Amino acid sequence: MTKYILVSGGVVSGIGKGVIASSTGLLLKTAGLKVTAIKIDPYMNIDAGTMRPTEHGEVYVLNDGGEVDLDLGNYERYLDVTLSKDNNITTGKIYREVIDRERRGEYLGKTVQIVPHVTNAIQDWIQRVSKIPVDESGEEPDICIVELGGTVGDIESAPFIEAMRQFQFRVGHDNFALIHVSLVPDMHGEQKTKPTQTTVHALRGLGLLPDLIACRLLGRQPLEPSTKDKISMFCHVASEQVIGVHDVSSVYHVPLLLQSQRIIEYLHKRLNLASLNITEEWVSKGLSLEAKWRGVTKGQERLFDDVKIVLVGKYTDLKDSYMSVIKALEHSAFRVRRKLTIQWVESSDLEPSTQESDPAKYHDAWRAVVGAGGILVPGGFGKRGTEGMILAIKWAREQKIPFLGICLGFQMAVVEWARSVLGIPDAQSTEFVPDTQNAFIIFMPEISRTHMGGTMRLGLRPTVFDRDFETWSKARKLYGGNDKMWERHRHRYEVNPEQVQRLQESGLTFVGKDEKGERMQILELKDHPFFMGLQAHPELCSRPLNPSPPFLGFIAASCGQSDLEEQIQEQQKSFHPPHPEHSMVSEEVLRTSTQEHPIANGVGTMTPPTD
């Protein structure tokens, strides 16, 4: 029987439920258990695909093309699992399912209501998805972590709270535990418990009793024993059921913080984990995982040399817009034993128009770019800020600064080359100038360029390395010298096949293409210390203990050529893809299982926001 751990939140949102849920799952894995995770987002959207990055953080893309909440990225990174779009539940998905069933007559003429029909649909969804294998074992998970987004008391989350109240009886007391995350503010040196008392009181009034209360403290001061005892007394839990989660030097220390407060020992008793059949092999894997995780966190504390990366993006106002990019940089910095410093540059600040409107901002932006150890241009949609990206890419190329371009950054590297090297000043992408005479980036959906029903290219796709460049291609070497690699995609525009020959003849090399050789997927410059662009989003598959190869190469090159050579040699010996073996198949097979978004005349009704 699968065990369920619900993680809810009170007082305010955004206080770290996702990290606490992921950390709890990681600790359970170190005990030899197989763990999966589900995120509930109470908003009405079907998925996160149509949200601006500045609205809800980055849109995280899964192997099956699901566009989901960024917390699923936390789950995949911490638990080293591969989730599906069904691991993200939204109000929109549940209501759509209930209404579709009503239209098919499956409710046999009954009045369809929130209780029981919507609440049953939620419970059925959780039970179904919790049984799906997510790791290399191919077996049903032992534990399912369910994170409920938002805060207790929100109108939009009420059906989910009621569903979970019922669910605890459906699965039984020994198979359901609740961790409630609450804020404990510090006012003039005194830790206040009243907000936690209030939210726990509200939760109990809704029929859910917390087994563990995780008290978030916004600062380095740990939870005081007197505060812990007070929460224990007024929230009707034992003192051992109150745990403190204060700010630590890195989120990767949170699992160790929870472990030091014996959270797993408590869950072991509460959920009767001894009843599960844990094999010696998985116990051994768990111990190995714990040792490696401790090694990473301890090593991080002893770093003195730093590596300075400038990120030139469109959504720098909200750093969560680039959550996976940040994590991929962190993972790579761990590997090369450097302290990561990211300088954020809004790409539009590099443009001449800013020099006129705000000279100070313009000069600050360029000062950062000129002093960069490495320049990264990540993905995005829309024209705003792209000229600034092109200027940053030109600087990196001409000054021999390590450069990594992701998706839009890859495309802008092609446009910059066309303008600067081929001498075509009006080279453009049809995303920005549909009627351009020199289209180097064009609309290329997977099915049709002209008919309705074409798609955004979403999910895991293979890239084939060109053997003509295997002697010098850093990308190929970083992927272990393999003939193929797999990464996740999210785009509609790609390099114009009609321009590829002239680009390659002038020195811009496309070392990786799709299986048909029609789509350009990796570019490199042979005579540059490190200049690489990928149409895919390799940051989405980076893991703390298995960094993304392009990011690893980029960070290493930003440290120095000797570091890059060292990591290339190590990757050629030990690179292991983060994907399940069964998912590394042909593009034709993968496309059939990918979630697809309809478009019309090249402009998607589900087109991502462009701001």
Shape: globular
Number of helices: 21
| Strand line-up across the major sheet | 13-12-14-15-23-22-21-18-19
Derived from helix and strand composition plus strand pairing, the structural class reads alpha/beta
Mean pLDDT value? 92
Kindly estimate the percentage of residues that lie in beta strands according to DSSP: 15-25%
Please describe the biggest sheet, giving its number of strands, its sense, and whether it closes into a barrel. Answer: 9 strands, mixed
Helix fraction, binned, reads: 25-40%
**Low-confidence sequence ranges:** 450-454, 595-606
The value of Rg in angstroms is 25 Å
Distance between the termini: 47 Å
The count of DSSP E runs of length 2 or more, i.e. the number of strands, is: 25
Secondary structure elements and their pairing?
Elements: E1 3-9, H1 17-30, E2 35-41, H2 53-56, E3 60-61, E4 67-68, H3 71-79, E5 88-90, H4 91-103, H5 114-130, E6 143-148, H6 158-171, E7 176-183, E8 186-187, E9 190-191, H7 194-205, E10 212-217, H8 225-234, E11 242-246, H9 254-260, H10 263-270, H11 280-301, E12 306-313, H12 323-336, E13 339-346, H13 352-357, H14 359-370, E14 374-377, H15 386-398, E15 403-406, H16 408-420, E16 428-429, E17 439-443, E18 457-465, H17 474-478, E19 484-491, E20 493-495, H18 500-505, E21 509-513, E22 520-524, E23 531-534, H19 549-559, H20 561-574, H21 587-592, E24 599-600, E25 603-604
Parallel strand pairs: 1-6, 1-7, 2-5, 2-6, 7-10, 10-11, 12-13, 12-14, 14-15, 15-23, 16-17
Antiparallel strand pairs: 3-4, 8-9, 17-20, 18-19, 18-21, 21-22, 22-23, 24-25
Helix pairs in contact: 1-3, 1-9, 1-11, 4-5, 5-6, 12-19, 15-16, 19-20
